[in-house]
């Protein structure tokens, strides 16, 4: 029951190299890059290489190797950015109530300073 995927959403265009990004990490499964409007000292987005709108679409419809490779990449990026010891926060917005703006599944990675309490 995958939602229709808009091939021209901004993250699809970043994946195709049509729009530049500040790349942090790239492999066969995922691309990680700095958020253009950072909400923390470190604010990185990690997106899978595939046409998945939401967290659920990704987890249900993506091949097992992609799901595994994607989430391992999130962990690798946190490690490479030196956030493991200090700590960090992951967030994924899904759908209207969560104000998901870009219809390509992504995980936000926040860190670099002591974060406030999670408000919601
Ligand atoms: P959402 O609300 O969909 O979870 O978050 C989308 C995120 O993408 C926002 O934090 C926003 O700042 C970021 N973003 C939107 N457009 C671009 C862009 O063109 N480049 C980058 N690097 N980030 C973007």
From TrEMBL:
Where is the HIT domain positioned along the sequence? 10-120
Q: Where is this motif: Histidine triad motif?
A: 104-108
Per the record, the domain of life is Bacteria
Write out the coiled-coil annotation as residue ranges: none
Q: SUPFAM superfamilies under this entry? A: HIT-like
| Pfam families referenced in this protein's UniProt entry, alphabetically | HIT (PF01230)
List the Gene Ontology MF annotations in alphabetical order. Answer: catalytic activity
**Which residues catalyse the reaction?**
106
InterPro entries xref list: Histidine_triad_CS (IPR019808), Histidine_triad_HIT (IPR001310), HIT-like (IPR011146), HIT-like_sf (IPR036265)
Q: What is this protein called?
A: HIT domain-containing protein
Q: Which organism is it from?
A: Hankyongella ginsenosidimutans
The taxonomic lineage of its organism, from the top, reads: Bacteria, Pseudomonadati, Pseudomonadota, Alphaproteobacteria, Sphingomonadales
